[in-house]
Amino acid sequence: MASKQVSQNKKLEDEQGQLKNIDNKNYQEEEYEFVAIPPDGGFGWVVAIAAMLCNLVCDGTLFAFGTMKLHLQEHFKCSDMLILMVGSVPCGVYLLVGPIVSGLSNRYGCRPIIIVGSIGAAACMALSTLSPNVWAMMIIYGIFGGVFFGMVYLPSVVMVSFYFDKKRAIANGLVTAGTGIGALSFGPLANFVMGKLGWKTGMLIFACIMLTCIAFGAIMQPLKPQKVPIKREIELQTPVKQKPLTSVSQEATAGTNVPLLSSVDTSTQNNNSAAVPYSNVATVNGTSLSPPNQSPRIRTVSTSSYVSVGGTHHRRGVSNPEDATRPLYKKDALFTGSKTQLHHVSHTSLANSNPYMASATNIPALTNEKQKKDSAAKAFADILSAMTDFSILKNKQLLLICLGNIFSMLGYYLPIMCLVSFATEDLKVDQTSASFLLTVFGLFNTIGRFAGGPIAMIPHLSALCVHNVLLFTAGILTVLAAYAYNLTTCALYAGLCGFAIAPHMSLLPSIICDCVGLDRYTTAFGILFLFRGVTSIIGPPAAGFLKDYTKKYDVAFALGGAMIIVAAFFHFCIPKTKKMFYEKIDSMFKKNDSILAISSLINSIY
Fold first, then answer.
1. How far apart (Å, rounded) are the C-alpha atoms in residues 274 and 154?
2. Most exposed: 336, 398, 430, 480, by fewest CB within 10 Å?
3. Where does the chain cross the membrane (predicted)?
4. CA–CA separation, 453 and 219 (whole Å)
């Protein structure tokens, strides 16, 4: 009899030890998660400068087409509409491929995409010198070159957002300066080089300049994921004097088979549970085999543990270190504005208390090896799917923004690509002097991008208000440009329009985030890329068609300005929809009907 009891005790000890090992193993697996912590400085400033130089070369080359146009048109002997299409196609294509490039950047990383884009863009520019006609130039430089330009531009912006959180507005302001510096310097450079050495040599020189982005891209190394311990609080109740294990078996019926012990952690089944009973207790015929007078062990799990809580909303990291380095999985990866410019709804989601990053990752936790292997393919598919989700246009405010951008982009590139030709062909201004009009435009455009944020922070003003007023002003100025009569008036228009049109790029991210919220910001911006890309291709050739038909650019500037004014009116309608929306929510909350208010909120957004 004693021998049998000893055998049962040993069996019970082995089973409890086995359970304890399994339990400890599970907790060790859940002990750490991986996060990429933005340094908000340090090497991040090097990355920001590299991104600025990428933008300088990429946008500077595209914006210099207004000067290149004169030399290319002289060689190809084509109409204004066709030659302007050569310059507008890459500007539109590099926006249209935004969702694809974003997915590739999330899959392979931003650094290799920038390097490949730099090599591809330089190759397209070099090969374009062999174009037998304008159509070949349009395909080589326009379509293929535009794809590679997009592979340089977008990942560089994303990398800055990956390295910065609190200081992101400052860092992106530095990056934005690259666009302005490129616009003010590359125009005169293109005129000088192509005027002295010919357009083919000039394109080869610009191709060599494009190759410098290989070095800039190589600098942008991804953040290394850091292992962060999951905070846990283990609470053990003070046990009463514990009986030896033999006393437990003595209470069991002799000859009874003790089943294999099972331990179930139910904390993963309830996102709202903070304290979950947990015990490694055997039962015999429904009778607990725990030591008498001892309460089960209670485990209290803090909500910082995403495994224990079971949801993704409370996580700070992910279980797969590779996913922690994928920048596009951050909800605010494409957000370049300042948090202080956001409405309280979006501002709350951004300015959370997370010490690691401003936005939680969107990806689900990986649970097995197969999912880990599939995560690389999903990294591309997830972002591409998110950035092409047109259901977000059910949001009336974003729909107004997209419709407004259809019209605004019809006139946005007009001063960049047509102002130099307008001055030289219509006003008979010297070509060298006319090329400096792009310098004036680029200088004041840079100032406007920096000034937009501080102006929007003036009391009783907002980002939307400043954006709308200045966009409307840019439209009026573009209409009035049709009456310019010398170099001075053209320069005056270039400076004022360059400043007024700048917030259309610098403040719009804050406006979009305010309208759709941070959770759907990436989707909204992906859809906006598509709208902008299509009309960017159409705008300059349409102006060229009017020039070919009327023999002057004045009608093109008048209609282009009218399109910008129409775009401003679409944006002016946004506050009315927002006011009606928030009044409806406030009235429901005053009635203490929280459920109805939240339901209305969801219906209004989606």
1. 42
2. 430
3. 43-66, 81-101, 113-132, 138-164, 171-190, 202-223, 398-422, 434-452, 464-485, 491-512, 524-543, 555-574
4. 29
User: Can you read off the two tokens belonging to residue 49?
Assistant: 């400068």
Residue 156 contacts residue 145 (beta carbons within 8 Å): no
Q: Do residues 40 and 47 touch, judged by C-beta distance below 8 A? A: no
* In contact, 450 and 177? CB cutoff 8 Å: yes
Is the predicted pLDDT of residue 278 greater than 50, yes or no? Answer: no
Q: CA of 490: how far to CAs of 86, 419, 582, in Å?
A: 24, 8, 44
pLDDT-derived band at 144 (thresholds 50, 70, 90) equals very high
Structural tokens at position 180: 């302005």
**CA 32 remoteness from chain centre:** 27
CA angle 429, 435, 436 (to 5 degrees): 100
In angstroms, the CA 484 to CA 429 distance is 12
Helix, strand, or coil here: 127? helix
Take residue 397 and report the two structure tokens written for it: 């405010």
Radius of gyration of the chain (CA): 31
Instruction: Looking at 355-462, list the stretches that DSSP marks H as alpha helix, in order from N- to C-terminal side.
Output: 369-387, 396-412, 414-421, 431-435, 437-456
